[in-house]
Amino acid sequence: MADLTGKKLLLIIGGGIAAYKVLELIRRLKERGASVRAVMTGAAQRFVTPLSVGALTSERVFTDLFDLNDEREIGHIRLSREADLVVVAPATADLMAKMASGLCNDLASTALMATDKPVLVAPAMNPKMWQHPATARNVRQLKADGIYFVGPEAGEMAESGEAGIGRMAEPAAILAAIEEHLAAIEGKAATQPLKGRRAIVTSGPTHEPIDPVRYIANRSSGKQGQAIAAALAAAGASVTLVTGPVALAAPAGVTTIAVETAEEMLSHVVAALPADIAVMAAAVADWRVAKPAGRKLKKTGKTPPALKLTPNPDILAAVATHANRPELVIGFAAETNDLVKNAKAKLAAKGCDWIIANDVSATSGVAGGVMGADRNRVHLVVAAGADPWPEMRKAEVAARLVARIAEHFGDSRPRRRDEAEAHPS
Ligand code: PMT
């Protein structure tokens, strides 16, 4: 028998005849040491009583979204997020339709919308309802949304003479699915040291318009910045990547915002605050054309047009001095000479915590160069000194940097920002 001590489940009981089987499921979960909180829909209460469910869970049963005491004491947000796993059993056609379309007009559907935890559904309905194109559509949508399924199974229905696919999975099968998902969640937590942290990454070049067809840019490909965004996401952070124009596909699991100019990049970075971590890998143009021409500049006469430049905002410095400054602000330094000396000067001038310094000169020794290519050789520069890293792939630089970031945040329990603000360490 699996030990589920310390595991928290939120069980959402829908209104179907199979609701009686849920009592057996609760009994088995409790035997294994899990704590079970139950939410019952109005219809569920016609099949089993909150009294029986409460007696088995040894917890108060939640039924009403507008119970002010509940809102004060616990609230549907906490209710849905304090669980390790949310289980919907029986998941009726109606409840699944609400989930698929984002409707929330009772406590069950609202908790399902508010949760940030994995959701496992055990559908139960008449075979005709299960086969209905609307249900098939909803199942596809729910699977695409990352909802897990157990069952339904084929067999006799409660209604006499009806048989087919639609019976809710037996409690033993639901229990096995719950155990499997809880084990997967535990495994994932061990490899996600930045779970609960928010990160902002800038990447790529900026394009500063000269006229509607020409711009000032640089050779950054976005490879290093995107590798960092992907590595942070793989470590469990919730990542916003603000990227200049690049030819790369947006990394999976990252909120990617595409911009052109430094000014656009700044406004999206500031909008993404607050965050715990900022990594500014973008090669932001230091200057832009003061007044880009509204029409394409023409070759008139012999003298080429003079471009009057004006400084761009410094995004890294703006983040490092912002009222909502992330706990860890990391800049890059792209240098062609005096790498560590210049990086240290940037660290102080921009007010960041660490600088990743890379030699972008033609003599860097990195085959193919650093900008645009796949490899990099960097120094991690902090106020106290510089740590030279060997040449490696940009993805490896990203993984090593993220390991250092995770080390910085230590092995303390990942904290949500609201918790951190309430109880600063
Ligand atoms: O994109 P790739 O082809 O993979 O190449 C990666 C890279 C070489 C572009 C990357 O590793 C890198 O070094 N990025 C920073 C490039 C740069 O512009 O460095 P900088 O020394 O000019 O700027 C210092 C820091 O200030 C950087 O963190 C930069 O993002 C930031 N900055 C600079 C100017 C500005 N107006 N705003 C900024 O935020």
Q: Extract low-pLDDT stretches.
A: 411-425
Query: How many beta-strand segments?
Result: 21
Please state the structural category.
alpha/beta
Named CATH architecture of the largest domain: 3-Layer(aba) Sandwich
The average pLDDT score comes to: 91
> How is the CATH topology of the largest domain named?
Rossmann fold
Task: Tell me what portion of residues adopts beta-strand conformation.
Answer: 15-25%
Radius of gyration of CA atoms, rounded to a whole number: 28 Å
| Measured distance between first and last alpha carbons | 40 Å
Compact overview of the structure:
This protein is of the alpha/beta class. It has helices spanning about 20-30, 45, 50-55, 70-75, 75-80, 95-100, 105-115, 125-130, 135-145, 170-190, 225-235, 260-270, 315-320, 340-350, 395-410, 415-420; strands at about 10-15, 35-40, 85-90, 120-125, 150, 155, 165, 200-205, 210, 215, 240-245, 255-260, 275-280, 285-290, 310, 330-335, 355-360, 375, 380, 385-390, 390-395.
How are the secondary structure elements laid out?
Layout: E1 8-13, H1 19-31, E2 35-40, H2 44-47, H3 50-57, H4 68-73, H5 75-81, E3 85-91, H6 93-101, H7 107-114, E4 119-123, H8 127-131, H9 133-144, E5 148-149, E6 153-156, E7 163-167, H10 171-190, E8 198-203, E9 208-209, E10 215-216, H11 223-234, E11 238-243, E12 255-258, H12 262-272, E13 277-280, E14 287-289, E15 309-311, H13 315-320, E16 328-335, H14 339-350, E17 354-359, E18 375-376, E19 378-382, E20 385-388, E21 392-393, H15 394-409, H16 417-422
Parallel strand pairs: 1-2, 1-3, 3-4, 4-5, 8-11, 8-13, 11-12, 13-16, 16-17
Antiparallel strand pairs: 6-7, 9-10, 14-15, 17-19, 18-21, 19-20
Helix pairs in contact: 1-3, 1-10, 5-7, 6-9, 11-15
Bound molecules: ligand PMT.
The site of ligand PMT has 30 residues, from helix 11, helix 13 and strand 16.
